[in-house]
Amino acid sequence: MKRAEAREQMHAQILSAARQEIAVHGGGALSMRAIAREVGLVSSAIYRYFPTREALLTAMITESYGNLAEALASSGADRKRNLARRWETLGRAFRVWSMSNPHEFQLIYGTPIPGYVAPAETIPAAEAVAVHFLATGAQGPVGAFNSTALSRQVGPIAGALDLNPSGTAAVIAEIAALVGMLTAEIAGHFVGTADPADHLFEAFLRRQTTTLGLS
Amino acid sequence: MKRAEAREQMHAQILSAARQEIAVHGGGALSMRAIAREVGLVSSAIYRYFPTREALLTAMITESYGNLAEALASSGADRKRNLARRWETLGRAFRVWSMSNPHEFQLIYGTPIPGYVAPAETIPAAEAVAVHFLATGAQGPVGAFNSTALSRQVGPIAGALDLNPSGTAAVIAEIAALVGMLTAEIAGHFVGTADPADHLFEAFLRRQTTTLGLS
DNA sequence: CGGATTGAGAGAGCACTGCTCTCTCAATCG
DNA sequence: CGATTGAGAGAGCAGTGCTCTCTCAATCCG
């Protein structure tokens, strides 16, 4: 029993050290050896806990999705009656989290690390994030996304969550758009045009609620 | 004279080899030594042409922006009278280019390579891409983006290109949204919901032309 | 209680990386 | 024709992910 506890503690300690590393140097630069040094282990010992760098990254991605989902859950959005306000609250919470944890954001939504392919086990974690937006924005139909082919594709999840198909497709696109906005801001692509991007982001949220028919 | 020619040829040869490397392994995995091997040089000789890996990446980014801008220019969009059709043509050309050159796309719009910061010299190259969308979509006002603070920020470029300020801000956001859509598709984030994403993308373009008041 | 088993950690080593340094030698310039 | 330049070679440094073998303490079981 004790053995298992110690193991779990070491596991957590490594993840924590990795998180610290990533916050400074970014995900692509994550070094197994540096983590080992930080937790006071020799490099090879790390591999007792994570068989490969990729495994460590996957664990971190899952964790980051969880952190983000939690930030959305505790934004107070779900206590709001007005759907437009609710969507805006979610959007702002997303942005605040992303700006506070840019490297975690990039870990999830950025270019995969060289050769890295997100494994299936990260999908439920990603869904935990999407669900907040779907529940808020996909209740009604959205004209531009009203196509039979598209509805058939998103049918399963729309059905499972009791949502409107065209609304569901629209929200999926709007999540991607939101991520695009934040990626651009973090990468500094707005410098010279709309940086700081606060006003642009607020206008963007207004546009989204209009598109989704929430206002 | 001959000397300078040979140097320029070697320069181009290295870039070409790097491009080939990137197409296979992605930007983060770009190896100076592998490039050297491919062009038949010893590793240290590469540094006669690019003082650092970062310099090589910058050169590649600029080149990629150029390729993308050229793909947009030769899409035939600017021959179209109908602005909505024109925007859709640009969007589709962007998507085709991105799907054909995913690693180049990620080089430009993805997570910066560990420790890499896009230097100022890539900005004009990025503008060459944006200009196509601005010229097409930013002629009229867009309600959600009509704020004085925002208009003041984008004022300079809107003025320089003789565009509507709120329309300009809207197009900037829509470019980011478009990039977000393509990033998600390339990263496989639509798998399980809307993959293949053709229909979602077409609906997305419809939504954009509506938002921008082009239809 | 005592021997067998397990597994965490150590350490050496392999093949790779970006980059620096010094050396050679052929092409160019004056 | 001699001096200068600069491309390329080669060795080397500090770092990487990962593998292998070894040790030794903690646990398990008869």
TrEMBL record, chains A, B:
<protein>
    <submittedName>
        <fullName>TetR/AcrR family transcriptional regulator</fullName>
    </submittedName>
</protein>
<dbReference type="InterPro" id="IPR025996">
    <property type="entry name" value="MT1864/Rv1816-like_C"/>
</dbReference>
<feature type="DNA-binding region" description="H-T-H motif">
    <location>
        <begin position="31"/>
        <end position="50"/>
    </location>
</feature>
<keyword id="KW-0804">Transcription</keyword>
<feature type="domain" description="HTH tetR-type">
    <location>
        <begin position="8"/>
        <end position="68"/>
    </location>
</feature>
<dbReference type="Pfam" id="PF00440">
    <property type="entry name" value="TetR_N"/>
</dbReference>
<dbReference type="InterPro" id="IPR009057">
    <property type="entry name" value="Homeodomain-like_sf"/>
</dbReference>
<dbReference type="InterPro" id="IPR036271">
    <property type="entry name" value="Tet_transcr_reg_TetR-rel_C_sf"/>
</dbReference>
<keyword id="KW-0805">Transcription regulation</keyword>
<keyword id="KW-0238">DNA-binding</keyword>
<dbReference type="Pfam" id="PF13305">
    <property type="entry name" value="TetR_C_33"/>
</dbReference>
<dbReference type="InterPro" id="IPR001647">
    <property type="entry name" value="HTH_TetR"/>
</dbReference>
<dbReference type="InterPro" id="IPR050109">
    <property type="entry name" value="HTH-type_TetR-like_transc_reg"/>
</dbReference>
